[in-house]
Amino acid sequence: MDWGSLLGMGAYMGPDFTTEFMHYRAEYLYDFYAQEMYKKNAKDLTDIERGAVKERVKQDVKDQNNTS
């Protein structure tokens, strides 16, 4: 466990797996909510749609952090 951890400790010796996971999760959620809300890929959204998806992703992450 000295080479990174799921809690972010140990990153000074290796990769911080928590940060990497959160990055991939956010990317996944952008694509997921773009499809769910607009039936489009995230890269095809308009600026207004992208803003709505971004707020939904932020709310999802915030809700997840409050339940754990």
What would your notes on this structure say?
The protein is an all-alpha fold. The chain has helices spanning 17-38, 47-67. The chain has one domain (17-67). The chain has 2 helices and no strands. It is elongated.
Task: Give a topology summary.
Elements: H1 17-38, H2 47-67
Helix pairs in contact: 1-2
Number of domains: 1
Note the main sheet: none
Task: State the total count of DSSP E strands.
Answer: 0
**Helix-strand string:** HH
Mean pLDDT across all amino acids? 83
- The residue fraction in helices comes out at 55-70%
Q: Low-confidence parts, pLDDT < 50 over ≥5 residues?
A: none
Classification by helices and strands: mainly alpha
Percent strand: under 5%
What does the radius of gyration come to?
Answer: 15 Å
Q: How many helical elements? A: 2
What global shape is seen?
Answer: elongated
Note the main attributes of this structure.
mainly alpha, 63% helix
Short description:
By secondary structure, the chain is mainly alpha-helical. The protein has helices at 17-38, 47-67. The protein is 63% helix and 0% strand.
